[in-house]
Amino acid sequence: MSTQGLFSLRDRTAVVTGGLGQLGRQFTAALIDQGARVAVLDARPAPPETDRCLYLEADVTDRTALERAMVRIESAFGPPHVLVNNAALDSPPNAPASANGRFEDFPVDVWRATIDVNVTGVFLCCQVVGGRMAAAGRGSIINVASIYGLIAPDQRIYEYRRARQLDAVPFFKPAAYATSKSALLNLTRYLATYWAPQGVRVNTVTFGGVFNDQDPEFVAEYTKRVPLGRMARADEYNGAILFLASDASSYMTGANVVLDGGYTAW
Asked: b/e per residue, 41-59, with b = 16+ CB within 10 A?
């Protein structure tokens, strides 16, 4: 059997949430490069669209906004084939200092805001976009998770911040983000079995840290824990997205693909 075109997405429609972020831009460009038409959903103001990319300003926690977006997408590109649930919050914009403080003092409103985007937002996008795929009898949903959905954050990475008193309150990686990313693993398994009869595949990708000009002390502490000895480049996750979006993974559903430089292998 020929493998030519195995990763091709020609004439398929993909939806990428959080598509204006660091990874979202990478995923969008990679999908377009393989022939897909891409609808980018993001809460930030949309740039001008192109012939293969439709930008839509939409809040993933607002089902009405998602339904409106789907009308635009289907009018421009037809029914979706691929959904990349990439939109996420670590801590919400303008969150108080205590949002990265002690667990005992973590603000419940920040907890709710994080869970709302990272879990409820994925749930709603799967309902709206995944529902269209199920009706069409095919599709691939890719839920973007994190190593902190598999293991607890290593708070020792951030000891340099506490030692240098860089923050208003002592810094700890918060529980809300880790909890939200863990929840995606079982939502993936649930939907993979639920929609299997309709031909919709649902998988998770679990990523490690991506270099983005972070504090050199953070990078040094983080990479000490990575067998490959570095953080990921922003483009190194594109292959996994293309694999799961395309027919190259046609017999794969309910799975979790881990790309973390070996971080979780210790």
From this structure: bbbeeeeeeeeebbbbebb
CB-CB contact of 147 with 208 (8 Å): yes
Q: What is the mean pLDDT of the chain?
A: 96
Cβ atoms of 245 and 31 within 8 Å: the answer is yes
For 119, the token pair is 């879990």
How far is the CA of 254 from the CAs of 12, 22, 193, 203, 233, in angstroms? 22, 26, 7, 5, 26
Q: At what angle do helices 108-115 and 175-194 cross, to 10 degrees?
A: 30
Q: Find the helix or strand (DSSP H, E) in which 83 lies.
A: strand 82-85
For the chain, the structural domain boundaries read: 13-97+109-150+175-212+234-257
- CATH hierarchy code of domain 13-97+109-150+175-212+234-257: 3.40.50.720
Task: Map residue 16 onto helix, strand or coil.
Answer: strand
211 token code pair: 């270099």
Rounded to 5 degrees, φ, ψ at 233 are -80, 155
Q: What are the tens digits of pLDDT across the range 123-167? A: 999 999 999 999 999 999 999 999 999 999 999 999 999 999 999
Q: The tokens of 198 are what?
A: 């309709």
**Residues near 214 by Cβ (< 8 Å), separated by ≥ 6?**
222, 231
Identify the band that residue 172 occupies on the pLDDT scale cut at 50, 70 and 90: very high
